[in-house]
Amino acid sequence: MQQIIFATKNEGKLREIRMIMEDLPVEIISLKDAGITDEITEDGKTFEENALIKARIIMEKTGKLTLADDSGLEVDFLNGEPGVYSARYCGVNTSYKIKNRNIIERLIDVPDGERTARFVCVIAAAFPDGRSKTVRATMEGRIGYEEKGSNGFGYDPIFYLPEYGCYSAELDLEEKNKISHRGKALRLMKDILIRETGA
User: Fold this and answer.
1) How many CB atoms lie within 10 A of CB 40?
2) 89: CATH
3) For the chain, N or C: smaller number of CB within 10 Å?
4) How far apart are CA 14 and CA 6, in angstroms?
5) Which residues neighbour 161 within 8 Å (Cβ) at sequence distance 6 or greater?
6) Helix (H/G/I), strand (E/B), else coil: 146
7) Of 119, 122, 121, which Cα lies nearest the Cα of 143?
């Protein structure tokens, strides 16, 4: 069975990825599974640049088809912050409790209509023959007034989905995968992999 490396150490993310890709005849392995401990500097200015940096570095190191994502939260009232800095927002090792509180506090008196935000996910594929592809998907919503739910990670507990009447972290994994930015991007990438690898 063909192995595809997904350049992540995040177990929550890996669980989502494997669930969506489970009908492909490939084995999705993490950086840890592949024995890679290198820290990769993501110094791109866009989600696309960062995803490609990760995918290409790991592919060149292993010679295996590598997928990598860069995702984050864009809050319109904050001019798109935290954006590509979502993981490093408020400092590299700052907990999401603190990051989420910071965003809620900055929007304390902002009315519903101006709390619009989106999750963005870009997935890059680096093929062993040197080619690369990227896909982008979003999930639209708004910033809530508190943290709710325990099913997600990162900014999920403050991301309210008006259409569903709940927070992203209140969705179960199956529901979330259907509508999330990552779920949508993974399905787009899955179509590319089927075409490119005959999987």
Assistant:
1) 17
2) 3.90.950.10
3) N
4) 8
5) 139, 141, 167, 168, 171, 179
6) coil
7) 119
Q: What is the pLDDT of residue 198?
A: 64
Distances (CA, A) of 191 to 25, 140, 167, 187: 13, 23, 29, 6
Helix (H), strand (E) at residue 17: helix 11-21
Domain count, the chain: 1
pLDDT category of residue 138 using cuts at 50, 70 and 90: very high
Q: Say how far apart CA 47 and CA 49 lie, in whole Å.
A: 6
Structural domain boundaries enclosing 111: 2-197
Query: Which member of 33, 69, 70, 76 is catalytic?
Result: 70
> Following CA atoms 120, 4, 152, 164 in sequence, which dihedral angle do they give, to the nearest 10 degrees?
60
- Annotation says 70 is catalytic: yes
Peptide bond into 162 cis (omega under 30): no
Q: Coil, helix or strand for 68?
A: strand
pLDDT at 161 over 70: yes
User: In sequence order, which ranges of 22-109 are alpha helices (DSSP H)?
Assistant: 47-62, 96-106
For residue 136, list its beta bridge partners.
Answer: 122
CA distance 151 to 157: 8
**E runs forming strands in 54-131:** 66-75, 81-82, 116-126
